[in-house]
Automatic annotation (TrEMBL):
This is Enoyl-CoA delta isomerase 1, mitochondrial. GO terms for cellular component: mitochondrial matrix. Pfam families: ECH_1. GO terms for biological process: fatty acid beta-oxidation. It comes from Eudyptula minor. The lineage of its organism: Eukaryota, Metazoa, Chordata, Craniata, Vertebrata.
């Protein structure tokens, strides 16, 4: 109901992306949500609570896989952010080539992990720094900020704001603009800009999985996540 990134969602997402990547007729992808007001609620917190070490490893590998495939995609990728986009939701947008968000200040976007008592891994941070620069990323990450759309635009986290009814049209126009360039030159340029970050995760993938498992299975972290989930439920009642 909130497009949370569960293991199943991430697996399906990677398979779909791979199919499109291998389809020579497909040169660009627009990522958006079919759910009104929510782009994605980020990683599915229930996948990180009370599960086995094997499950944490499998889940984290799937998150890494999504990151590697989307950040390294040869296609033009445009995020049409039509609602709230915390944490992993923000990450999906960050991995695209261009971000367009609905101008409604009620929708916010950011890497808010610190608010949950957890820490965004270095590769989340790398993509954030590559979009907004070091200082803005540092402050935003330390505070776990969720930026309302106008602020997200001001700090460069999203490239453009549009009225809700113009989002799809704008995303198609931007994609067409990017696709007007020769694929080869654009793809090599993209790869040059992103290679260092991609190589870094590939080189440290197993170590990163072990770090995640030892971090997430700590009782203090499990407690923070449980409290956060309770807070989400209480907010509703
Ligand atoms: N995972 C699992 N369940 C979720 C999540 C989530 N991320 N987000 C919401 N839900 C559940 C809620 O608990 C609620 O469940 P129920 O119906 O059983 O009570 C249901 O979805 C609907 O949620 P809301 O009532 O809150 O729906 P709203 O429309 O009012 O709000 C929001 C939607 C804005 C998306 C809101 O739900 C929200 O803010 N969710 C939390 C988002 C969040 O903080 N996500 C962070 C996830 S962590 C992450 O992505 C990166 C982790 C990096 C790992 C670090 C290494 C250790």
């Amino acid at each position: 109901p909130v497009n949370s990134l569960s293991l199943d969602f991430l697996t399906e997402f990677c398979i779909s992306l791979e199919k499109l990547e291998n389809d020579r007729a497909c040169r660009g992808v627009i990522l958006t949500s079919a759910i009104p007001k929510i782009f994605s609620s980020g990683l599915d917190i229930t996948e990180m609570c009370g599960k086995s070490m094997e499950h944490y490893a499998e889940f984290w590998r799937a998150v890494q896989e999504m990151w590697l495939r989307l950040y390294g995609s040869n296609m033009v990728t445009v995020a049409a952010v039509n609602g709230s986009s915390p944490a992993g939701g923000c990450l999906i947008a960050l991995l695209c080539d261009y971000r367009i968000m609905v101008e409604n200040p009620k929708f916010s976007i950011g890497l808010n992990e610190a608010q949950l008592g957890i820490v965004a891994p270095f590769w989340f941070k790398d993509t954030f720094v590559n979009v907004v620069g070091h200082r803005v990323a540092e402050r935003s990450l330390q505070l776990g900020s969720l930026h309302p759309a106008p602020e997200a635009h001001r700090i460069g986290l999203v490239d453009e704001l549009v009225p809700e009814d113009k989002l799809q049209e704008k995303a198609v126009a931007v994609t067409a603009q990017w696709l007007a360039l020769p694929d080869h030159a654009r793809q090599l340029t993209k790869s040059m800009m992103r290679k260092a970050a991609l190589d870094r995760l590939v080189a440290h993938r197993e170590e990163d999985i072990q770090n995640f498992i030892s971090f997430i299975s700590k009782e203090s972290i499990q407690k923070s996540l449980r409290m956060y989930m309770e807070m989400l439920k209480k907010k509703k009642s």
